[in-house]
Amino acid sequence: MAELILALDVVDPLEALEIAETCAPYLDRIKLGYPLILRAGLGIVEDLVALDLPLIADFKVADIPNTNRLIAEQVFTSGFDALICQGFVGRDAVQACVDAARAYGGECYVVTEMSHPGATQFFSPGIAERLAVLAVECRADGIIAPGTRPERIRALRPIVRQRKILAPGIGTQGGDLARVAPLVDGVIVGRTIYEARDPATVAAEIATSLVARGSP
């Protein structure tokens, strides 16, 4: 069964904590990105750790190996369980993230293709496949593939095999839960949940749908 991962991209710390707390019973993980961290600071991770849900740092790390290592170390010592990095910076830079994740008992996911329309300009077929191969060669835990383009997930699955695929873009961006959930290990849902009048109810509905669909 695909996990339900909340992309908690609100910028108000109190609102973020309230949404996370009410939705927690229906979630498998929470993903935090720059919008919330730049406003609240890494200290908010301590508050979210209390929910006992794995936390993913979606910083899409993309720098030289040493800088990647330093960022990854800050991520994991702050309480995160996983890190997302970009693959286009090359093997040595990705390996730095993977090695740091291993050192702290965490996970590392490599972006192979993003979910917004403009991503197809450069994350094109062929490039994404090469990034997926790189993720496997670096022994990353999995990849990020677009929930808005299920055919691309199907193209990448044979490359990563049993490694996890997490798919953003479900809901507001147009990704269809019914089509994507059977193909991936985790669906990433943001605005559809946190912009809802009752986020917990929406999260519960999605979680119930995922249970009904079973394993990918």
Task: Kindly describe this structure.
By secondary structure, this protein is α/β, with parallel strands linked by helices. It is built from ten helices and eight strands. β1, α1 and β2 form a beta-alpha-beta unit. The longest helix is centred in the last third of the chain and has 15 residues. The mean pLDDT is 95.
Features of this protein?
alpha/beta; 10 helices; eight-stranded parallel beta barrel; 216 residues
Share of β-strand residues: 15-25%
Class per helix and strand makeup:
alpha/beta
Through-space gap between termini:
6 Å
Provide mean pLDDT, rounded. Answer: 95
Instruction: State the share of residues found in helices, binned by percent.
Output: 40-55%
Rg, Å, rounded: 16 Å
Order of the strands making up the biggest sheet: 1-2-3-4-5-6-7-8
What overall form do the CA principal axes indicate? globular
Helical stretch count?
Answer: 10
Residue runs with pLDDT of under 50 for 5 or more positions: none
Number of E-type strands: 8
Give the topology string: H per helix, E per strand: EHEHHEHEHEHEHEHEHH
